[in-house]
Amino acid sequence: MTRIEEILDRIGTLPPLPTTALRLMAVINDPRSSMEDIVEVVRYDQSLTTQVLRLCNSAFFGLSRQVSSLSEAMFRLGTLKVLQLVMSVHTNVLLMKEQRGYSLEPGALWRHSVGVALASTVLGERCKIQNISLLFTAGLLHDIGKVILNEYVAQECHEIVRLVHEQQQSFIDAETQVLGHSHDQIGGMVAERWQLPDSIVRCIRYHHTPLLLNPPDPQVDVVFVADCVCLMLGIGVGVDELCYRCDHEVMQRLGLHERDLEFVGSQMLDELAKIEQIFGVRGSVSAGGSSR
Amino acid sequence: MCPLWCEKMNILVDIADFAVSNDPQATLVTHSLGSCIGVTIWDSEIRVGGMIHYMLPESSIAPEKAQTKPAMFADTGVPALFHAVYALGAVKKRLIVKVAGGSHLLDDNGTFNIGQRNHIMLRKLFWKNGILVDSEDVGGSISRTLRLEVGTGRVTITTRGQEKEL
After folding, report:
1. A20-67: per-residue pLDDT in tens?
2. Are the beta carbons of A242 and B143 separated by less than 8 Å?
């Protein structure tokens, strides 16, 4: 079996996303869906419902009265917030693990993924993109291909890094040259295998190469810019560092300026700190200076 | 007081945060400096040190955040860092100032170059306030870890597993 065949074979070994997550993505992908439709999907997953209610009732949200049902949680916290919690719970197990090949310690890929998901949401609102919930999920899963390629990057890390630094290649080009596939392409294949909505598959597959799409896809553009913001700010960055190409054209077609990126970065960091607090992950942002 | 068995203590400075210390056993450390900038300041006479990891140049993009997290921005965080070391007895003219970070993505147009704008803002701030930078390691597409040993003033940068003194 060639290495490319081995990598493709490995995609099949990745555990499937829970049925609830898949059904939920189908529901949020449908603009006609209502809050009741979402509750209907989640309510039969007892374990998920319990986890989400526990998070909603955590001290962080400071609700004066405990919520006891998902519909009540959505009413009091907002549908988007509850959806974000649901999807984050679902992807925790996959994304929290160490990805040694990419020099990502435990939690780092999760942190980067949640950062991109949140930045996508902020950008989506700013650019008036429809279906913000879908953007959050696409952002959350955009680097899922790294989970598959991790082991192979570990084996060839030296050569990939050499190409990046000696020949000024982007990490994506170096991955493709050495392994035959890059993590965005592999991620697209994983998303297809999971039968995720086409729009999410596109966001994952083209999150480093949005210019390849004709006509352009604003949702892909948003995830691309969100990823650039998080990489720049060093949110969950590993061996690939900042070695990715960005493109001015994408900014232009989204109508974004430099200061918009800074605004998105500041909003994302705040929201990320909140989610880390809710999930009990080490807080990355404290209130200000400290004297020790 | 640090007990005998406690040789070194790392004080982690997160993104959009700063810390100061006069504990000679302490090392201030910040990880994953991309486009963000890390500044270390150290008073050689009384051995007081401080470090900031700010992410954006100007607080005017989100003034309400500057109130709760001044260290998110150069224009509010850097003055706050200096005031915090002054409060521990440091004197401006004795401070040794070192700077690291300001990296960028592979970007021909410079649109995504928050790192460069972060650096320009710092230079403006220092120029206005008559502060000289002792040494700096800025730019490139790399991620840096910055450390300041409070007891000695030694500053190091680690990139791709290689440590060097700044």
Report:
1. 888 888 887 787 888 788 888 877 777 778 888 888 887 767 777 888
2. yes
Q: Which residues pair with B136 in a beta bridge?
A: B99
The predicted model scores a pTM of 0.90
Query: Which residue type is seen at A122?
Result: V
Residue A160 has pLDDT above 50, yes or no: yes
Q: What is the mean pLDDT of residues B10-23?
A: 96
This model of the complex carries an ipTM of 0.91
Say whether B19 sits in a helix, a strand or coil: strand
Q: What pLDDT sits at residue A179?
A: 93
Inter-chain Cβ pairs, chain A and chain B, closer than 8 A: 144
* Alpha-carbon span A55 to A48, nearest angstrom: 11
Domains of chain B, first to last: 9-165 (3.30.1330.200)
At residue A290, the pLDDT reads 47
Phi, psi of A166, rounded to the nearest 5 degrees: -85, -30
Residues of A in contact with B18 (CB under 8 A): 288-290
Confidence grade of residue B103 (pLDDT, cut at 50, 70, 90): very high
Note whether B11 contacts A170, CB cutoff 8 Å: no
Tell me how close the Cα of B28 comes to any Cα of chain A, in angstroms.
Answer: 10
When scoring B41, B48, B64, B105 by the number of chain A Cβ atoms within 10 A, the one with the most, hence best to mutate, is B105
- Chain B residues whose CB is inside 8 A of the A170 CB are 106
Tokens coding A38: 């979402």
Interchain pair A287, B81: CB under 8 A? no
